[in-house]
Amino acid sequence: MNFNYTLVGQLLAFILFVWFCMKYVWPPMMKVLEEREKEISDGLDAASRGKRELEEAQVTKVEVLKEAKNEAAELVNQANQRASQLVEDAKTAAQEEAERIKITAQADLEQNTKRAKEELRSEVAALVVAGTEKILKVEIDQKKNSDLLDEIAKDL
Q1: So where are the chain's domains?
Q2: What is the pLDDT of residues 61-116, one digit of tens each?
Q3: N or C: which end of the chain has fewer CB within 10 A?
Q4: Among residues 80, 58, 88, which one has the least CA distance to residue 72?
Q5: pTM for the full model?
Q6: Which segments of the chain does DSSP mark as H helices, in order?
Q7: What's the pLDDT tens digit per position in 28-45?
């Protein structure tokens, strides 16, 4: 019964093949499959972590933008207030300068008026002397009559 020996031989060869595969082929294949499974699992974990971090970053971005907008608005308000303050300061300084110029101009005007009056008095005194000389037909000496001329100038 060759059939039986062949069957037994094939059975032994199969058992030997299974044992060989279980001993030398199966463990490296299982190791490769486990590593691949671990890589896939780590990749999925990393993807979910990335998704969470992206969501957190979105929330943080919104908060940072709100803070930046508020800060920018505050800076604009401060700049506007500073500009208003500078305008007010400039107005005040201009008014003070105008007042100072006005006072100086008034003082100059009064001084020029006094000088003009003195010049007019001197000229009128000279004209009075000349007129008096013509009326009296006598020469009047200004040096001798300076007191009289000063008194006439004061009266004018």
Answers
A1: 34-155
A2: 999 999 999 999 999 999 999 999 999 999 999 999 999 999 999 999 999 998 88
A3: N
A4: 80
A5: 0.42
A6: 2-20, 26-136, 146-155
A7: 999 999 999 999 999 999
| Direct distance between the N- and C-terminal alpha carbons of the chain, in angstroms, rounded to an integer | 173
How far apart CA 100 and CA 107 sit, in angstroms, is 11
Cβ-contact 152, 128 below 8 angstroms: yes
Contact partners, residue 142, CB within 8 Å, separation at least 6 = 129, 149
Cα separation of 42 and 26, whole Å?
Answer: 24
Give which of 128, 7, 22 is closest to 145, Cα–Cα: 128
Residue 125: phi and psi, rounded to 5, are -60, -40
HSE-up of 134 (CA within 13 Å, CB side)? 5
C-beta of residue 149 within 8 angstroms of C-beta of residue 142? yes
